[in-house]
Amino acid sequence: MKIVVLKFGGTSVGTVDRIKKVANIIIGYVKKRYNVIVVSSAMSGATSDLVKKSKKISNNFISSEYDVLVSSGEQVSCALISGRLNHLGYKSQSYLGWQVPILTEGNHGSSRISQIYKKKINKFLLSGGIPVITGFQGVNQNNRITTLGRGGSDASAIMCAKFFKAQKCIIYTDVDGVYTTDPNTLKKAKKIKVISYEEMLEMASLGAKVMQPTSLQDARLNRIDVDVKSSFIKKKGTLITKRKNISSNKTIAGLTSTKNDAKVTLIGVKDKPGVAASVFKPLSQNYINIDMVVQTSSGNKKETDITFTIKSEDLSKTLKFIKQNKKIKYRDLIVNKNVSKVSIIGVGMITTPGVTYRMFQTLANKAINILVISTSEIKISVLIGKKFVKKAISALHKEFKLD
Amino acid sequence: MKIVVLKFGGTSVGTVDRIKKVANIIIGYVKKRYNVIVVSSAMSGATSDLVKKSKKISNNFISSEYDVLVSSGEQVSCALISGRLNHLGYKSQSYLGWQVPILTEGNHGSSRISQIYKKKINKFLLSGGIPVITGFQGVNQNNRITTLGRGGSDASAIMCAKFFKAQKCIIYTDVDGVYTTDPNTLKKAKKIKVISYEEMLEMASLGAKVMQPTSLQDARLNRIDVDVKSSFIKKKGTLITKRKNISSNKTIAGLTSTKNDAKVTLIGVKDKPGVAASVFKPLSQNYINIDMVVQTSSGNKKETDITFTIKSEDLSKTLKFIKQNKKIKYRDLIVNKNVSKVSIIGVGMITTPGVTYRMFQTLANKAINILVISTSEIKISVLIGKKFVKKAISALHKEFKLD
After folding, report:
1. Which of A156, A270, A375, B201 is most buried by a 10 A CB count?
2. Nearest to B339, CA basis, from B255, B280, B258
3. Quick one: B296 exposed, middle or buried, by C-beta within 10 A (0-12, 13-18, 19+)?
4. Which string of DSSP letters, residue by residue, matches A275-319?
5. With contact defined as beta carbons under 8 Å apart, do B147 and B111 qualify?
């Protein structure tokens, strides 16, 4: 069998008319003699509506029933897709997580797929049928419905591609691919034709909302080529694949920027071993994600300054925990909410010297001050004032020949 | 175990606030040391909304996927009820049809429950849990979701009461019981405290919309006492039970009237054996329900008049089939859309002579002309002009001492 997994996100199946269009896309692949496995999200808005109801029932809705509640969304979209395919004369059947079954492990609301039983789906495929599988959900060993967490339909699609040994996995969404940077920030942004898992992972983690990072990681581990495409317009998308499949000569694949970061600096912290740990321990215990961290000595040898960034929404909680923290003493605490992290990403930087220098020089030429720096093998991130973001993105986009 | 089955209809769980009230009703029974099994319909409006979507997808939506689609409604309401019970500190879990499992047979969209597996639910009850079971749905032998047809949640509740040997089955709805006649037609209508299955069946078939006739039949066959109550106001409801449990001295339990009947009369039909059959065969083949039928000779011995009633909505189809029918010849065809069927129902009429006479005399006293009569062991129905309905109901209500 020549299997393709087609995954449709919430906006792609957001209305009955959209579902009709989706059915036509599916049939296009059937006509090309593919055995198609469809994976669908809930109709956009459906899940949020259910979440709202759960919040009115309880501010601490029990997670096992929450999964029963929200998983009904994909049941609706998949039945409608399958109904449409049947209407058009194609043999199709919806498969809910428990019907496949898709076995998961881990907690309700954030389960992981451990096994997909292939027998029923394979039999249906061989009979010429189009299975339409609910994304985002499965069952655990007690036969209770579980969900994979928001955006988990991507993970369902990737795991289907893995277990059914699909030749292709195509993620249909409301954007037509991955761009060198957010087109809303820079008009000159270009669509990337092909990108490595690693680059895409960095871009997704840094704010490009095309695919969930964990699903990308699954795709990378299982070496599954993923095509990101629009279900709204017929255009070539972006292929996410292995590094060695990429012959691009670009040093940098793309740029990202964040919108809601905050910077906290503790001035004059008593410098002794373990001081950083005692700052961050209560924060991590309370699920506050620390992003960039810098520790510098401020002249006085017995004191140090600690700077770190967090999501703006965590700021008030963070300040509370720091002020409550009896284990640290500091002279002053400075907060800056008007900061943004700008990153350049590319596997090319491993083999191309001078990328760091070029980035800093480009920003210096525009008189943009760098507050914090953090780097990995394939990305460099700098924290700058929020008002400089557009200017920085534009200059870097040009410098690294992405225009 | 002292088991009670509580069934909540769509309006009873129509909003999040209603679901909170329903949780409180459930807890009331738990506090009385009952082991409660909850059966719930979808939130009112939810099913209609899904049906609308299916119609936009296909005017002939495949029934197997239709069942997947609409069954999502109970999944939502049951998860919310169970979520609320957990929020209030009670151990509760939703059970979808396939999780119990509730096995069904027959076609999609109109399946019947053949078996309810008790093991999981009993174990949960014994552990002090409150199972919340989705009404209206089950699974067939192929593990595909099935539905019982509209109003089928009543059937789910009755069958749960049967299989789990419940002491009580309480149907919570938006009316506070069964009335001697429709309170909208007659203000003097009184709530019936206790009524036999047979009387309730006749009343339900004749227009009292409190419970589905097929579910009542299930209750009768399995000797399950059914209490019909309001979930909106705290009041005693109506108990539906065996005849011999009823010590009432009322001859007549209640009165009903229909709103949308039409009468068709074929004048001067050639009278030969099989003529009635040739009139009705094409109608029954096209799913047109014939209600009352009268055949009378109109003087001329070779001719006869055939009168019958149908639902108004079937009238144009009926006339089309009669006019197309080459097997019958008639001199004239008369249609009357302004008719209504008024019925008196009561097991008492079996042992009380003169009920028929009293009914006809009462109507005659009010100068109401009877067009057609039909009787069964425990009911007498007459067809009269629609404009006389209120007057007839009022006079009969008084005559049979229901005021």
Report:
1. A156
2. B258
3. exposed
4. HHHHHHHHHHHTTPPP--EEEEE-SSTTEEEEEEEEEGGGHHHHH
5. yes
* Residue A165 near residue A228 (C-beta atoms within 8 A): no
pLDDT at B190: 92
Q: Alpha-carbon distance B305 to B295, whole Å?
A: 6
Name A220's Cβ contacts closer than 8 Å, sequence gap at least 6.
A197, A198, A201
Contact between chains at B58 and A83 (C-beta distance less than 8 A): yes
| Mean pLDDT score, B272-290 | 86
Q: Say whether residue A94 is in contact with chain B using an 8 A CB cutoff.
A: yes
> Is the predicted ipTM greater than 0.90, yes or no?
no
Which residue spans within A140-273 are E strands per DSSP?
145-147, 168-173, 194-196, 226-230, 238-241, 254-257, 261-270
Instruction: Give the number of other Cβ atoms within 10 Å of residue B90's Cβ.
Output: 17
**Is residue A151 over pLDDT 70?**
no
Cα-atom radius of gyration of chain B, to the nearest Å? 24
- Indicate the helix (H) or strand (E) that contains A116: strand A112-116
For residues A73 and A103, is the Cβ–Cβ distance under 8 A? no
Residue recorded with tokens 């797929």: A113
Whether B96 has its CB under 8 Å from any CB of chain A: the answer is yes
Residues A161, A121: Cα–Cα separation, whole Å: 13
The tokens describing A300, both together, are 């006085």
Residue B36 CA, chain-centre distance (Å), reads 25
- Within 10 Å of residue A233's Cβ, how many Cβ atoms? 8
Count of pairs with CB atoms under 8 A, one residue in A, one in B: 111
Q: Report helix, strand or coil for A115.
A: strand
CA distance B66 to chain A (A): 7
Strand arrangement of the beta sheet that strand A112-116 belongs to: A112-116, A102-105, A137-139, A145-147
Cβ–Cβ below 8 Å for A80 and B19: no
Contact assignment for B76 to A62 by CB distance below 8 Å: no
Band the pLDDT of B108: cuts 50, 70, 90. very high
Instruction: Please state whether beta strands B194-196 and B130-134 pair in parallel, antiparallel, or not at all (unpaired).
Output: unpaired
Of B20, B50, B84, the CB nearest to A76: B50
Sort A107 into a burial class: Cβ within 10 Å, 0-12 / 13-18 / 19+: middle
Question: Is A72's CB within 8 Å of B69's CB?
Answer: no
B-contacting residues in A 31-90 (Cβ below 8 Å): 50, 53-54, 56-58, 60-62, 64-66, 68-69, 71-73, 75-76, 78-80, 82-84, 86-87
Measured CA to CA, the distance from residue A250 to residue B132 in angstroms comes to 59
| Residue range A3-174, CATH number | 3.40.1160.10
In this prediction, residue B250 carries a pLDDT of 79
pTM for this entry: 0.85
Q: Distances from the Cα of B290 to the Cαs of B79, B150, B286, B309, in angstroms?
A: 42, 22, 11, 6
Residue with more model confidence, B1 or B96: B96
End-to-end alpha-carbon separation of chain A, Å? 42
- pLDDT, mean over chain A: 92
